[in-house]
Recover the amino acids of this structure.
């Protein structure tokens, strides 16, 4: 019987715990494994190097780890994927995708805005790729015979703009489509059901949920997962087992955390939209008819990340300095609320003109709303906004 999401997040990857006689996921910290049967060990090594998901003997921790494999099975279940492959960071996961595409992936079509690190990696061509940055409705026109990947992020970082996954898939045709679904999580969005080829998460964010793990994961078909594992073995980018344990623990409360934080974000977005100091609020469902239509079609809810624009970077910085409860910091998806100015931090390495063209102004602030009391969060925002305005009033 197919289980519902609320059950899956608690039990996926843990199905055999009862038979093992334990209640909590075991952590396997071995760096190497005994190989008393040389033939079995050699066969296992060859299997892993060939991209196999499992083998008789793990042999060595760079090849395979049982705790990491548990997290991968759990995430694949939540995304409705054949398999998932976990890495030491979200950027390591993206790097593996680009390398696993081989010659087919020399040209990438990417829809901006994207996470600053992703944008920078593609723009530098460090991995031998060439990128065409386009708007969402220009993907088909940008595809070439050597295009190996179409990449989107939805909701996008940092403007939380929504991209129509089904429309992108249709434009891409036979070209694989990668969706960075970090902001949505499997709770709010399932890109594979909408035709995407693979889903990427910076598991550091909502999947971990407590600000104590750095990780990345890709959910996809079995064949491409094998290629990702081959790259992971060669680059040594496998996730640490302790991080996998923390991620499994985080998944069990994922749905509760996402929904609670989303409720707070909806309240704050509405209040910020009415505040005289705020030039504009970016939040799924508040971006006009087209954005609302995409939201209703491909997401269960708008999520807990929002962005809002102040009149200048200096004013935004004054506000950040005045906060007392909300933490000024990069990253997102934690139980506590975080806020940062993308033009100064996460997207500082993105071309300035590209930032401007895609709504990343100097005064834009991105806030990841946590699960604190909404009234306490609003009180902190309100006093910080007032403090940011005071120097301007004095100057006037």
């Amino acid at each position: 019987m197919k289980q519902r999401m609320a059950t899956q997040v608690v039990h996926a990857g843990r199905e055999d715990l009862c038979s093992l006689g334990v209640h909590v996921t075991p952590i396997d910290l071995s760096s190497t494994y005994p190989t008393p049967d040389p033939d079995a060990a050699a066969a296992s090594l060859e299997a892993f190097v060939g991209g196999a998901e499992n083998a008789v003997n793990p042999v060595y921790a760079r090849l395979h780890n049982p705790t990491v494999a548990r997290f991968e099975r759990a995430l694949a279940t939540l995304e409705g994927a054949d398999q998932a492959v976990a890495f030491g960071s979200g950027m390591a996961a993206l790097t593996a995708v680009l390398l696993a595409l081989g010659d087919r992936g020399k040209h990438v079509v990417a829809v901006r805005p994207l996470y600053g690190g992703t944008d920078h990696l593609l723009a530098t061509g460090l991995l031998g790729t060439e990128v065409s940055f386009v708007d969402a409705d220009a993907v088909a026109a940008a595809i070439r015979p050597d295009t190996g990947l179409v990449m989107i992020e939805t909701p996008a970082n940092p403007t939380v703009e929504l991209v129509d996954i089904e429309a992108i898939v249709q434009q891409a045709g036979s070209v694989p489509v990668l969706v960075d679904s970090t902001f949505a999580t499997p709770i709010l969005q399932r890109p594979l059901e909408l035709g995407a080829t693979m889903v990427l998460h910076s598991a550091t964010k909502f999947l971990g949920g407590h600000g104590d793990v750095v990780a990345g994961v890709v959910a996809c078909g079995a064949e491409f997962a094998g290629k990702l594992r081959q790259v992971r073995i060669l680059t040594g980018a496998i996730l640490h087992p302790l991080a996998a344990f923390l991620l499994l623990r985080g998944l069990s409360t994922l749905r509760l955390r996402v929904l609670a934080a989303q409720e707070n974000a909806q309240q704050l977005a509405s209040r910020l939209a009415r505040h005289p100091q705020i030039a504009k609020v970016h939040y799924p469902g508040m971006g006009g008819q087209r954005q609302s239509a995409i939201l209703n079609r491909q997401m269960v809810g708008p999520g807990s990340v929002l962005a809002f624009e102040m009149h200048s970077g200096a004013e935004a910085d004054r506000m950040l300095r005045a906060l007392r409860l909300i933490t000024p910091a990069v990253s997102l998806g934690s139980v506590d609320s975080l806020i940062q100015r993308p033009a100064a931090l996460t997207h500082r390495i993105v071309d300035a003109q590209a930032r401007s063209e895609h709504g990343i102004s100097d005064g834009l602030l991105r806030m990841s709303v946590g699960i604190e009391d909404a009234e306490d969060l609003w009180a902190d925002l309100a006093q910080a906004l007032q403090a940011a305005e005071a120097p301007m009033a004095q100057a006037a």
Q: What stands out?
A: The mean pLDDT is 94. The radius of gyration is 22 Å. The CA atoms of residues 87 and 237 lie 6 Å apart. The first strand starts at residue 83 and ends at 87.
